[in-house]
Amino acid sequence: MHPDHRDGHAYAVGWLTAPHRLTCLGCGHVAEWAPRRWSSGAGDAYFSGRGTLVVPMFGGPDDPYFGLPLWLRRACCGRVLWAYNVPHLELLEEYVAATQRERPRPAGSQTLLERLPAWMKAAGNRAEVLAAIRALRDGA
Asked: In a structure prediction context, what are the per-residue pLDDT tens digits for the chain, which is 140 residues long?
């Protein structure tokens, strides 16, 4: 995030919709990103002092800002397994490898791990999911 836009946001969504300068760690390419004005059907809206803005869509195999495919993605169980970075892969690996998963108290559905798709959490897919995670991590 650009230093001029770091402060003054009461909620995380304000940071997400602030202008960003993003750098590719692989090649060093730098790109600027600025939020788009919201219009009907454009996605989730964030109402700010700068007007109504579209919130970047996280939670899929594409970069939320530029819409480009993530580097850490692989076919798995007829779906796409993806991660934003190596720590994300490690978190997924630890969760999938666990044979007993305890829910935090208070239980809810707001954590990343609780919102994973059922195919990724299924015991019958554990070996294939772990193999895909390890292949992604080894190639990262």
From this structure: 444 444 555 556 667 777 878 887 778 888 888 888 888 877 777 787 778 888 777 788 888 877 888 889 999 999 999 998 899 999 999 999 998 877 666 656 567 777 889 999 999 999 999 999 999 999 86
Dig out the tokens for 54 from the structure.
Answer: 């579209």
- CA dihedral in degrees (120, 126, 128, 131; nearest 10)? 100
Residues 6 or more apart from 22 whose CB is under 8 A from it? 30, 31, 32, 33, 65, 66
Structure token digits, residue 137: 């991590």
Helices (H), ranges, the chain: 12-16, 86-97, 118-121, 126-139
Cα 84 off chain centre by: 6
Residue where the block lists tokens 């995670």: 133
CA distance 36 to 51: 10
Look up residue 73 and give its two tokens.
């993605």
What are the φ/ψ torsions at residue 20 (nearest 5 degrees)?
-125, 145
